């Protein structure tokens, strides 16, 4: 009987050890890139905005070198009525040349965008793409 209790206790201790090993450690928050897009306030076509965002996001290649946490690159482009881009420029540097280059390339490689909606009253719209690195 004592041997059975001892074996059961040893087995329980072994199983407890297995359960502790099997439980994954708490998730560690990882730094993550984010892309935000801002159109001129009078441009309200959300479908167009989503498509422009998706096009740039799909062409954004993450560089190996990240900027300091919380920094961002801001790329500004003026989209003309026909969708062509004009005046594409890096407006704010992130502190990482590789990050800035990748952000600028994503917007440049997205050109041209779709033609502006017929109901939009201007000949162009200014768009700001924010490539942010946060933890």
Describe this structure in words.
The chain is an alpha+beta fold. It has one domain (32-134): Fusion Protein Consisting Of Minor Coat Protein, Glycine Rich Linker, Tola, And A His Tag, Chain: A, Domain 2 (2-Layer Sandwich), CATH 3.30.1150. It has helices spanning 2-22, 46-59, 97-110; strands at 32-39, 72-80, 85-92, 124-134. Strands 1-4-2-3 form a four-stranded antiparallel β-sheet, with helices on one face. α2 crosses α3. It is elongated and about 40 Å long. It starts with a helix and ends with a strand.
What is the succession of H and E elements?
A: HEHEEHE
| Contiguous helical run count | 3
CATH topology: Fusion Protein Consisting Of Minor Coat Protein, Glycine Rich Linker, Tola, And A His Tag, Chain: A, Domain 2
Oligomer: single chain
Can you tell me the number of structural domains? Answer: 1
- Taking the alpha carbons of the first and last residues, their distance comes to 57 Å
Q: Which shape, going by the Cα principal axes?
A: elongated
Q: Under the CATH scheme, which class?
A: Alpha Beta
Q: What is the CATH architecture annotation? A: 2-Layer Sandwich
Beta-strand percentage range: 25-35%
| Tally of strands | 4
Rounded Rg: 26 Å
């Amino acid at each position: 009987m004592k041997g059975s209790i001892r074996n059961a206790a040893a087995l329980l201790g072994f199983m407890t050890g297995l359960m502790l090993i099997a439980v994954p450690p708490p998730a560690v928050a990882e730094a993550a890139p984010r892309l935000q897009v801002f159109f001129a306030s009078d441009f309200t076509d959300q479908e167009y905005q989503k498509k422009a965002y998706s096009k740039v996001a799909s062409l954004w290649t993450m560089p190996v070198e990240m900027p300091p946490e919380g920094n961002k690159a801001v790329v500004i482009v003026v989209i003309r009525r026909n969708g062509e881009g004009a005046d594409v420029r890096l407006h704010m540097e992130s502190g990482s040349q590789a990050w800035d280059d990748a952000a600028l390339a994503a917007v440049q490689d997205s050109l041209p965008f779709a033609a502006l909606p017929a109901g939009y009253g201007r000949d162009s719209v200014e768009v700001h793409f924010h490539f942010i690195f946060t933890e």
